[in-house]
Amino acid sequence: MLNEIYNQTKTSMTKTIDSLKRDFSTLRSGKVSIAILDNIRVDYYGTPTPLNQIGSVIATDATTIVITPWEKTLIKEVEKAIQEANIGVNPNSDSETIKLFFPPMTQEQRKEVAKEAKAMGEKAKVAIRNVRQDSNNAIKKLEKDKEITEDISKKGQDEIQKYTDEFVKKIDEMVKAKEEEVMKI
C-alpha cells in the first residue's frame, strides 16, 4: 500500500516538473522561441484552434518568427489573434506569410522575465508541497485505520519528505538555469 502512495507521489511530482518546463517554454529569453505562441488561438471556422495547427510556425533567426497559414484566407484571423494575445509585437503580413519581429530584450525586460520564472518556480513548489500533504494524509489514514504501525507511518512520511526535497531542489535548479538563460545577452 505504501509503495502505491510512493508511486503516486513520484508521478504527481514529475507532472509538476513537466508543467513547469511547459510554462518556462512560453517565457521569452534572448532568442525568440515559437513556444511564445503556444497559447494563441485562432478562430478557425468558429473553433478556437492553436496557431501551430492552422499553419507552419518557424523561428527563422534569434528575433524573427514566420507564420505561414495553410489557408491564405486565415491571414486576417491570425493577425487578429496575435494582436489580441498582446505578446509585444505587431504582425507584418505580405498576404502569404506573417512575420513577427521581436526587438532585442532590454535589461529591464530580462529582469521582468526572470521574476516571472521565479514566480512559476514558486507555484510549482506549492504544487509539490500539496502533493506531499496529500500523500502524508493518505499514510496517516492507513495508520488511523490500523493498516500500518506508527513506525511504518513515520518511515513513510520521511520517504515522502525525501521525494519532496528532491523535487524542490530540481525546481530550484530549473529556475536558476532559466534566470541565467534570460539574463545572458
UniProtKB/TrEMBL annotation:
GO terms for molecular function: ribosomal large subunit binding. It is found in: Cytoplasm. CDD domains: RRF. This is Ribosome-recycling factor. The gene is frr. It comes from Helicobacter brantae. Residues 132-180 form a coiled coil. Residues 20-183 form the Ribosome recycling factor domain. Responsible for the release of ribosomes from messenger RNA at the termination of protein biosynthesis. May increase the efficiency of translation by recycling ribosomes from one round of translation to another. Keywords: Coiled coil, Cytoplasm, Protein biosynthesis.
